[in-house]
Design goal:
Keywords: Transferase. One of its GO terms (molecular function) is transferase activity. This is Aminoglycoside phosphotransferase family protein. By secondary structure, the chain is α+β, with helices and mostly antiparallel strands. It has 2 domains: 104 residues, Phosphorylase Kinase, domain 1 (2-Layer Sandwich), CATH 3.30.200; 208 residues, Orthogonal Bundle (Transferase(Phosphotransferase), domain 1), CATH 1.10.510.10. 44% of the residues lie in helices and 14% in strands. Strands 1-2-3-5-4 form a 5-stranded antiparallel sheet. A 3-stranded antiparallel sheet has the order 6-8-9. It has a two-stranded antiparallel ribbon with strand order 7-10. 26% of the residues are buried. The chain binds adenosine-5'-diphosphate and magnesium ion (MG). The site of magnesium ion (MG) has 4 residues, from loops.
Length: 314
């Protein structure tokens, strides 16, 4: 705690008196830290993790857009923005990690629970509002614009083409029966990507990671958190998370009050669904091959990978 205490004091003028570990997502560590006045949510991206560079590279691109949204759209109070350091930055770092702090949201995370009618309505209103904005807002959006390029596909191919000498047997045995399926899906994604790049599909601000662990309920308000995937993209990048849900029609009815003639673009939907599947597989492999994991974490990642590989044929 001493390190963190000093860091928060130096960068944010916040004097913390307590700190407790919280269940974070898989990408970062999370803490509740409190001063005598209030509580904060501290997110720590450890530098030793393979995913950190990619996840934190865009902080300075997406946070200013969120700040603009909070001041210029109906999203105030519905999305969290990080606190600013004394130097006017949205993050700070030391040799161990990259740190961001937010006001602590008192409430609960939806996670795997069913959502209520009211939550569906609020979610639909938030996403409909978000999708009203695009690259014409007066904040730079170039760094987060979808280009339909999927760079991790090459890395994924390299993995089995080179079969790196340190490829562990258990991982290889799991992956190798599915390589053809993955090759086929990669080819489909690349073809769709090319088609979308040459089309004039409408793009809007999208969250791109809309699942229950990124939704919190605080008193009467639903809050959408974890905006590190913010993009200017076809709206299917968000709707793909909702389309298979039992409440999708209800969601769509409310969404269409704002976006009157909206209909799903099947190419964009298929592109994002396939990309997500391959990205999950890639990230699990990345953890298994390059991250330091204990036995329990490793078994859990292997199970997740196996589950994901099974869905490839579907
Ligand atoms: N401001 C906050 N206040 C309280 N809890 C939060 C806050 N932000 C996130 N959380 C909790 O921490 C978890 C992980 O945060 P999230 O931003 O989604 O990180 P990750 O990128 O690791 O998924 C969330 O599922 C939620 O339970
Ligand atoms: Mg999350």
């Amino acid at each position: 705690m001493d390190n963190t205490k000093k860091l928060l004091k130096d960068y944010y003028h916040v004097d913390i008196t307590s700190m407790s570990s919280q269940q974070g997502g898989w990408a970062s560590l999370a803490y509740k830290v409190s001063s005598n006045q209030k509580s904060y949510f501290l997110k720590v991206y450890e530098k030793k993790r393979a995913s950190t560079a990619k996840l934190t590279a865009l902080i300075d691109k997406y946070v200013p857009i969120m700040v603009w949204l909070v001041h210029n759209s109906k999203l105030k109070g519905k999305i969290p923005v990080p606190l600013v350091t004394r130097g006017g930055e949205y993050k700070c770092e030391d040799e161990h990690g990259i740190y961001m702090i937010y006001d602590y949201i008192e409430g609960y995370t939806i996670g795997d629970q069913d959502v209520t009618e009211d939550q569906v309505r609020q979610l639909s209103e938030i996403i409909a509002e978000l999708h009203l904005y695009s690259e014409d807002i007066p904040v730079e959006t170039d760094g987060i614009k979808e280009d339909f390029d999927v760079p991790f596909l090459q890395s994924l191919r390299d993995i089995w083409n080179q079969r790196r000498c340190n490829f562990p047997n258990d991982v290889w045995n799991l992956v190798s029966p599915h390589i053809q399926q993955m090759e086929d899906l990669m080819h489909t994604i690349e073809t769709l990507g090319q088609r979308l790049r040459n089309s004039n599909v409408r793009m809007a601000l999208c969250h791109t990671d809309l699942h229950g662990w990124n939704l919190m309920q605080s008193e009467q308000q639903l809050i959408v958190i974890d905006w590190e995937g913010l993009k200017v993209a076809p709206v299917e990048a968000d709707l793909m998370f909702l389309i298979d849900k039992p409440f999708f029609q209800e969601f769509l009815n409310i969404y269409q009050k704002t976006h009157h003639n909206f209909s799903i673009n099947p190419d964009a939907l298929q592109f994002y669904q396939g990309k997500r599947k391959l990205e999950d597989i890639w990230e699990f492999l990345e953890q298994l091959l390059w991250d330091e994991q204990n036995e329990e974490e490793r078994v859990s990642t292997l199970n997740h990978l196996q589950e994901e590989l099974k869905t490839l044929g579907k």
